[in-house]
Specification:
single chain, alpha/beta, Nucleotidyltransferase, domain 5, five-stranded mixed β-sheet, 32% helix
Length: 139
């Protein structure tokens, strides 16, 4: 009988599996930072058209008439309605060509929406009203 001079190694190398898991971890970390979750639940009114403008500043009014604001990818922070003007002016100083998106729950009284629209109009801000797509009827 002939004997082999080299012995086969009967262990499993985990280095390639570790590399794959590491790459997946990096992928999910990067993609999760790109998503801006809307933590404040607002039921938007339906609209037939969607805007293509990407707003930098957001003003949110929930159904309990709580006001929130955010700029860029920042999280929404509670804001006093009287401080909205100052907040939007600070945002405009950072980005003069910004759009302001107003996310108002469909149960919010119209007068509250008009207050924010008046602030935008008085300061010449470009305002976009956020809506949701209409529900499609099934046939």
């Amino acid at each position: 009988m002939l004997k082999r001079k080299t012995k086969t190694i009967e262990t499993f190398s985990m280095s390639s599996m570790t590399d794959i898991i590491f790459l997946l971890l990096i992928f999910f970390m990067i993609t999760s930072t790109m998503v801006t979750p809307n933590a404040i639940k607002v039921l938007l009114p339906q609209g037939s058209k969607q805007t293509s403008a990407k707003p930098l500043a957001r003003v949110i009014i929930d159904k309990e008439l709580n006001f929130y604001s955010a700029f860029g990818n920042e999280d929404e922070m509670p804001i006093d309605p009287e401080a909205i003007t100052d907040f939007l002016q600070e945002c405009a100083a950072k980005e003069p060509e910004m759009y302001v998106a107003l996310y108002a729950d469909e149960s919010v009284p119209y007068r509250e929406i008009v207050k924010v629209l008046n602030i935008a109009n008085e300061n010449n801000f470009k305002m976009v009203l956020a809506t949701r797509r209409p529900d499609r009827k099934r046939r």
